Amino acid sequence: MSPTIPGIQTAPPPPAPIGDPAGKPATFSGGPGEGGGIGPGNGPGIGPGKDPGVGPGRGGGSGGERAGLPAGSGTGNPPFIYANNANSFPGYRTWSWLRKERAIVTPEARENKVIGTVVLRADFNDDGTITNIEVAMPVDYMNEAAVESLRRCTFRPATLNGIPITVRKVLIRIDVHY
Q1: Which residues have C-beta within 8 Å of that of residue 87, sequence separation ≥ 6?
Q2: Cα 60 to the chain's mean position, in Å?
Q3: Is 93-176 a domain of CATH 3.30.2420.10?
Q4: What pLDDT score does 84 carry?
Q5: Of 84, 59, 70, 82, nearest in space to 161 by CA
Q6: Nearest-5° Cα angle at 35, 32 to 36
Q7: How many angstroms separate the first and last alpha carbons of the chain?
Q8: pTM of the entire structure?
Q9: How far, in Å, CA of 136 to CA of 139, rounded?
Q10: Which one, 1, 61, 143, 160, has least CB within 10 Å?
């Protein structure tokens, strides 16, 4: 017995426009604005703004000018940014190590001749603390030692327009060798 049941053969439906029906006539329309964005703005952003970003702002933020908050004046920073898109914010300066601690090789790792790289994911806060540490890529017998070494590290926080900011989900590599 055939597992499929043949249906009535019909022609495919005619092609329909894709995108915003109120947008400019084109193959893919994101709205009535210019620059490939979604909405009435004139840039690659979303909404009535200019440049990349969301809302009425400009310069890649989510509101007012630069990196403002929704409906903001553009002078404030968002409460945090994610590491994977941090460089897209104008005025962003990355965090830097002040003291980086090595992981202490555990007796179990030494006994089993373990080498490798533990990859951790953590939040680097605007007050200089490291929180929400989680193991993204484990190495047998060395995960806890890698987490402890990251907790002992110190860093200079990232800044956005000169103001310290929290960067979430930063990937950190801790090499394990003896």
Answers
A1: 94
A2: 14
A3: yes
A4: 86
A5: 59
A6: 75
A7: 63
A8: 0.57
A9: 10
A10: 1
